[in-house]
Amino acid sequence: MFLSSRRPQVDAFSYYLIKGIVRVSPKPAHGTWKDTVHMNALLKLLIREGQFHTGKHFVYTSGRHGEVYVNLRFLDTPNFENDIRLHSYSLLLQALKAMKPDFTRPIVVVGVETLGAKMARYSVEEYNRRHSTRIRFAVLEANKHEDGSKSFVWSSKNPAINHLLQEDTQVIWMDDLLNTASTLKRTRQIIETFAPIMTVAVLFDRRSFSVESLHVPFTVSLIKRPIETFDPEVNPCPFCRASIPVVTNLGHGANWKKSNPAYKGGFEEV
């Protein structure tokens, strides 16, 4: 936990090594001292592209504060289309392996706008290109309201939902990030009007609560690691107490600055 503004800064690899997300193998019983780093491809990509930040004071979409910021939105650009295609397809395979679906019944991947929608489409396209069994996808679009809240509706580009989602449909809910599960909660009622969600599939699962509270049979991810966060409205935030500057060019620090312009720790960009 961040307790001092003098805390030594660490690079992304070192942070993950300390936290146990990556590991360096010990000396093999039979062999050499050559170390092997075990880290999945998505994590390597995040670190290589500088989209993983640590040791700073960030404000998240949920309004909570923390010292880790992972930006997955950079994948939503033309330069990384192949990457998001392959990672989404890999995620879909994990979901299918976990849920062991009945392939005689329909399977639909529901993606949430914007990156989740692309993930659903790409994963299904890649799967159908490689397999004889056909999977379909649907997209939920976000409507933003003046008060900053969101509501979700089925995209007009979907096939007729009452034909696509039926009582025996096996639904995979797909998005880039699982944090507070607020998006899942807001979209669940819309989806389960037609069919229950069998699996939640995300690129990065950083939730700090138990999987049982999701009330979903299966949860899969490419990266799974709880990230400690703090709600300054409920409990004292150690970063605020230590007057650590809030980062304004990542996450929702800029919005928080508007509401807290006199914050004594000040603000910064990274």
What topology does this entry show?
Elements: H1 12-19, E1 23-24, E2 37-38, H2 41-48, E3 52-59, E4 65-70, H3 81-99, E5 107-112, H4 115-130, E6 136-144, E7 150-154, H5 161-164, E8 170-178, H6 182-192, E9 197-205, E10 218-224, H7 238-241, E11 246-247, H8 253-259, E12 267-268
Parallel strand pairs: 5-6, 5-8, 8-9, 9-10, 11-12
Antiparallel strand pairs: 1-2, 3-4, 6-7
Helix pairs in contact: 3-4
Keywords:
12 strands; disordered N terminus; 29% helix; six-stranded mixed β-sheet; 270 residues; two-stranded antiparallel ribbon; alpha/beta
Q: Explain this structure to me?
A:
There is one protein chain. By secondary structure, this protein is an alpha/beta fold. It has eight helices and twelve strands. The protein has a six-stranded mixed β-sheet, with helices on both faces. The protein has a two-stranded antiparallel ribbon with strand order 1-2. Helix 3 (81-99) crosses helix 4 (115-130).
The major sheet is characterized as: 6 strands, mixed
Q: Provide mean pLDDT, rounded.
A: 84
User: Helical percent range?
Assistant: 25-40%
So how many helices? 8
Radius of gyration, taken over Cα atoms and rounded to an integer in Å = 20 Å
State which percent range the strand residues make up: 15-25%
Pairing-aware structural class of the strands and helices? alpha/beta
